[in-house]
Amino acid sequence: MQSKHGGRGKPLREPTRWRITVLSDHFQAILQQLTDQSLRRSLSPLESATGPIVTYAGRPVILLSSNDYLGLATHPDVVQAAVKATERYGAGSGASRLVSGTLPPHANLEAALARFKRADASLVFGAGYLANIGVIPNLIGRGDLILADRLCHASLIDGCRLSQADFRLFRHGDCAHLETLLRRRTSTRRTLIITEGLFSMDGDLAPLADLVELAERYDAMLYVDDAHGTGIMGATGRGTIEQFGLEGRIPFHMGTLSKALGSYGAYVVGSNDFVQYLLNVARSFIFTTAIPPAITAAASAAITVVEREPERRDRLWANRQHLFNGLQNQGFRLTPTVSPILPVLIGDAAKASAFADRLLAHGVYATAIRPPTVPDGTSRVRFTVTATHTTDQLDEALQAVTLAGRETGLL
Q1: Catalytic site residues?
Q2: Which of 130, 158, 183, 258 could staple 125 via S-S, CB 3.0–4.6 A?
Q3: How far apart are CA 193 and CA 211, in angstroms?
């Protein structure tokens, strides 16, 4: 019998109580430290679908924290497309598309994205995080140089680290600083500039026209993450690249299906050769099960709605202006936002958390954003408005914001 020993007579290594206790003590110590710094996070269970009004703890509250900017997550056409795809193709995709094949909803979505983005081809990833960590290391590598905006999303930063290229940050939106870094490099050094199009935590736009000009002048590549711009920016909702009139000058970029398109996943668009290259080298595509057919079908339907119902963007921007004016009139300090993302700057993490707690008590769900999501000393409550909020709901929310601001000493 070998109940206590392995095949070579050595004692089997079994988990012991002290090991579990040591780990538990370590976890608890870290959690306590986060609690003391007002940085501990927890899940807030909702009891309804996302929307302008959600059910939380058995009562309706106004949701002002969703990236579902156009309200497409619950649009009947989008939901029905997901239902039909599930009924026909099942709940899951089985494996990576390179292993078990590509289903029609995946191919249809990629064709729709390429047409919508006016690109030759597109490739769908399981999430924006997977797209960025899959693409960036295959654009640049060891010995090369990456220059990224310091407020870039964590997925972009992690993609930079995985590339093993030398990595420098330039001051947020500061093209003069970027040019200084470009001038310092060896002129023949392969260089990638990285930015978000619409910055998710500040609501401001990257100076894309200037970034393109610098990339062209210094023979660098430019990679744009347009996750929050897709669907809402530009005359037809094609994103920040359309907003700046730069289509044709940025050869590839990425975006997500989980914000204005109301679904899940991400895409990269570019030339046919670029997409075929990624299909063969991007590990986060090759080694990941394809997103379910329902998700891809929903995203395709959402693109159709974006193109068919431009009035949704009109309502979104009207609502954005209404809430923006209300927050400013009450005396809150906002970031230099030009989008439906309206962050109220607070600074201290504990005060931001207290403000969010009082908002919830008054019927408004808006999350406190704290480090490491934003830099130290810049904690905030990030309000996001959607096309489906009514004016009455926004006015009710503004009343709650005023009360919460007074109760927490912000006003």
Answers
A1: 200, 228, 259
A2: 130
A3: 8
